[in-house]
Amino acid sequence: MKSNQPEQPKDMQELRQSLGRLEQRLQGVAADMERTQIAEYVKLLNRPWTLIWKNMLSGTARGVGIAIGFTFFAATILYVLRILGALNLPIIGDYIADIVRIVQIQLEGKTY
């Protein structure tokens, strides 16, 4: 019959290796949680007025950005249409003239 004493150091060594791997994995999980800033998110959820204020500011900034972007886009389109209208191209010029005519009729309050 064999004694269990030679196996104990081997089991202890495997246990230490296993615990070492577990510790490394836990440190990795802790580092990942720090990178995702979960604590700050939970703190923000526990303060609803701060959350509302930050969402209000971000929504306002987004709305202003959209308005500025659309204005720039529309001005660019109108500039290009003005240049194309000045070239008196047969097809495009007639199309732009139709658009101008429709807009003028709508401004006068008449239906076309």
UniProtKB/TrEMBL annotation:
The chain crosses the membrane at residues 63-81. Pfam families: DUF5665. Keywords: Membrane, Transmembrane, Transmembrane helix. The keyword Membrane applies. InterPro entries: DUF5665. The keyword Membrane applies. This is Uncharacterized protein. It comes from Paenibacillus arenilitoris.
